[in-house]
Specification:
elongated; 3 helices; about 10% helix; single chain
């Protein structure tokens, strides 16, 4: 740089070297100060927020210059460092691309039908696209998903309860803290659920499910919800203005669309378990002796199957019949007819009140006991019943 460029061309020659050195030193010092201020003493570029040493990634929209980190970025700023989805005006990170390629082009929403997730790791089982979470006990490397994990493998991704040998997810911790340490079973007495959101009502620890109509934000539980609030968590029946929970949908689907009242004729309950016989939609109640799993209905049950719910079995060893008899002052049936003791009575089905009749009741009579069974079918036929629809005679 010549003295004329510095601005000392009119000064005596003996002062040129001194003035040039001073100017050069001042310029270097100023540049060093700006760099230090921008990098906050780091050897790399930092966020322009004072005392922030995070690498910047946010800048003005359309610019490639990163100025601030995500925490200190201005409202109008966007991420100018990381790659974005190739869909126009989409600012999400791409994770989907051509199968067999490592180049991510689109986000999950805008990915083309043939594209797969090329960013996240996949289960090692052939043709399985789920995320792995199971691996060797003691290792941090996830290899298989829950379905394809080997018998000795454990979940190495999610945090576990601090109780020894407990593999459940922790959700309880110290009140006021966000760190979950124990599961509900092993939580200490003073601990509270620090994972799930709580009702906004003071001192209420229930889960919120009610919020403003049209919003997805749950604020209060059913007890403390305000009058205008509705359930914004659970799905509702697709019928207009119906707030009931849906349970009916297309046969073969798991998606519930309508409630029982508004379900279309061809729809079935997609939540309730059905009989294992092909084409049967009846609820199962029969299963293997000693088991609790219902597999077939009464019509399609196999010969060696028994009802696994709905009534208690006889208390006699080896007897699988229904327990009907018990003590007169008790409501608990203990034995079947064959093994009942002499002083026991039938607590499930009553005996016809007609003198000398020992048959079980089946239907009631008109009057105060209309819904109460008192007579067997034989003796009910002989009783006169008022025809339905005929008005009573006025006295």
């Amino acid at each position: 740089m010549s003295p004329a460029q510095i601005g000392f061309e009119k000064r005596p020659a003996q002062h040129w070297n001194v003035d040039y050195a001073r100017s050069w030193f001042a310029r270097i010092l100023l540049q060093s100060t700006r760099t230090t201020a921008r990098r906050n003493g780091q050897k790399r570029a930092c966020c322009q927020e004072p005392d922030c040493t995070t690498r910047p990634s946010f800048g003005e929209y359309g610019s490639k210059k990163a100025e601030f980190c995500s925490k200190h970025s201005k409202p109008a700023m966007v991420n100018v460092v990381d790659k974005k989805c190739c869909h126009p005006e989409c600012l999400k990170y791409p994770s989907y691309g051509t199968d067999g390629s490592k180049k991510a082009e689109f986000c999950a929403k805008h990915a083309k039908p043939a594209m797969v997730n090329v960013v996240d790791k996949k289960c090692c089982h052939p043709e399985c696209l789920k995320y792995p979470s199971y691996g060797t006990d003691g290792s941090k490397k996830a290899e298989f998903c829950a379905k394809h994990a080997k018998p000795a493998m454990v979940n190495v991704v999610d945090k576990k309860c601090c109780h020894p040998e407990c593999l459940k997810y922790p959700s309880y911790g110290t009140d006021g803290s966000k760190k979950a340490e124990f599961c509900a079973k092993h939580a200490k007495p003073a601990m509270v659920n620090v994972v799930d959101k709580k009702c906004c009502h003071p001192e209420c620890l229930k889960y919120p499910s009610y919020g403003t109509d049209g919003s997805k934000k749950a604020e209060f539980c059913a007890k403390h919800a305000k009058p205008a609030m509705v359930n914004v968590v659970d799905k509702k029946c697709c019928h207009p203005e119906c707030l009931k929970y849906p349970s009916y949908g297309t046969d073969g689907s798991k998606k519930a669309e309508f409630c029982a009242k508004h379900a279309k004729p061809a729809m079935v309950n997609v939540f309730a378990k059905r009989c294992g016989y092909p084409g049967c939609v009846t609820y199962p109640s029969y299963g293997t002796v000693g088991g609790k799993k219902a597999e077939f209905c009464a019509k399609h049950a196999k010969e060696d199957m028994v009802s696994v719910h709905g009534y208690k079995k006889c208390g006699h060893s080896g007897c699988i019949k229904q327990a009907l008899f018990g003590m007169a002052d008790s409501k608990k049936p203990e034995f079947c007819l064959q093994h009942a003791k002499a002083d026991m009575v039938n607590l499930v089905r009553k005996i016809c009140i007609r003198p000398g009749c020992s048959k079980y009741t089946s239907i009631g009579v008109d009057g105060p006991t209309k819904k109460k069974a008192e007579f067997c079918p034989k003796h009910t036929r002989g009783r006169k019943k008022r025809p339905r629809g005929r008005p009573r005679k006025k006295s």
